[in-house]
Amino acid sequence: MEEEPRTDIEKFALRIAGRRLYPYQAEIANAILHSINNNLGHIITVLCARQMGKNELSAILEAFLLHEYDLLGGTIVKAAPTFKPQIINSRLRLMAMLRHDLLKKRVWSSFGYMIGLAPFESEKRAQTGARILLFSAEPESNVVGATASILLEIDEAQDVDPQKFDRDFRPMASTTNATTVMYGTAWSDDTLLARQKAINQEIEERTGEKRHFEYDWRVLAKINDKYKQFVEAEIERLGEEHVSIQTQYFLHEISGAGRFFSDMQLDLMRGTFAYQSEPSDDEIYIAGMDVAGEDRPMEDGTPSRTRDSTIVTIGRVVSQEERLPRIEVVHHQWWTGMHHEHQFQAAVALIEKWSIKALCIDYTGLGQGLASLLMDRFNSMDVERVQPFTFTRPSKSRLAYQLLALVNRKGIAFYRKEGAPYPVHLECWKQLRKAKSRLYAPEVIDFYVPPEEGHDDFLISLALIGEALEQYINPPESTIIKPKKSYTDESKY
User: Fold this and answer.
1) Residue 2: its pLDDT value, please?
2) Which of 65, 133, 420, 464 could lock 425 by a disulfide, CB 3.0 to 4.6 Å apart?
3) Is 78 a member of any domain?
4) Do residues 207 and 278 both lie within one domain?
């Protein structure tokens, strides 16, 4: 038999949201309300793994406070790193809570960022009762002047600039000594959330008063089997040491940007097969091509040195019983400072020599011209051997996760060191070891080699061959000419 809700917020959540709060959600909510009700003015920090309901809890808490303060009035201020989509999503969650029959007839909104709840007794309900103001915490946003008399909330506080908080938001709680709550997940050890977490932990150690609440994914996994299955699948897909797993699910802070490949993942990519200078007749080859700029000669006629090189990574596709195909990288082509006209000629020769079935090529910036020429040369109505890839923040993130999934399932490996061209092997593995990752947003990841530590052309070419495999296995529907069915031929049935 399920335990009955014990506190007012728990009873409210059951009535409005239709379900009981998880124990950790109730603990957070009751701590925040204790500070509000006793005018303690605490700054409370909340770290929860992704998808553990902190946004839902925030919406329930806001609806509860609007309801409780409908006669007294007052203001909640909520800020998030961006207005779109984060504040918009917060608004949608709150409005979903306020659609309940108990509340919906008293709801009003204004200016797109203000939502209020009028009291039952009010005849003129517009602009009366308690309200919430929803603000963007982007550095350029203008939010000075609001007062948080009930509560100040900072969502995804790890992404809010500390100076922006100290200058524009913290003063909003000053005249009423309002409680502040910062929600988020872990990232680096120098964020606004990490800074306040350290202060709260020091207070707890000194006084025993708990102001920091932290729950990693295992807390919810114990009571929600579907969530457990999801996170375990993500850990298997990306690897436990991956930066997004460590920060978003285990809540471990990192110092600066994290490594893209763990030592275990690097070991998974070490193959035992030989480097090939020539193709074999009975093998299927695909390739990824990262395109660099061409060298412009100096005034005295000597060639300048470009930062990047054009790298072509060639791999053979190895079929596996009951498993997805595997890529075995057998050859690298490395061109530095080559004019694009010569790169085109060399690429044509390489594609024809190796009979490349699928080539994924960088189609961003300088790569567009070369990619277009190769597409004109090798693509036809029924076959597209050359696939362009345009790098954007979302597309590069998808490429990163795809590559990590490929590595983790032992789906890609490199030729062994013995017999391979020494400079090629050395530079390739140098880039793989130095590769870093950083999160732009909860699910958007970047991967790169810091400019001061070297180049990333081998790394990008490797990611593109992963996309080439996807294109080879699942070619775009537009390139497939399906045979016409005959509905009169009885032999078809």
Assistant:
1) 54
2) 420
3) yes
4) no
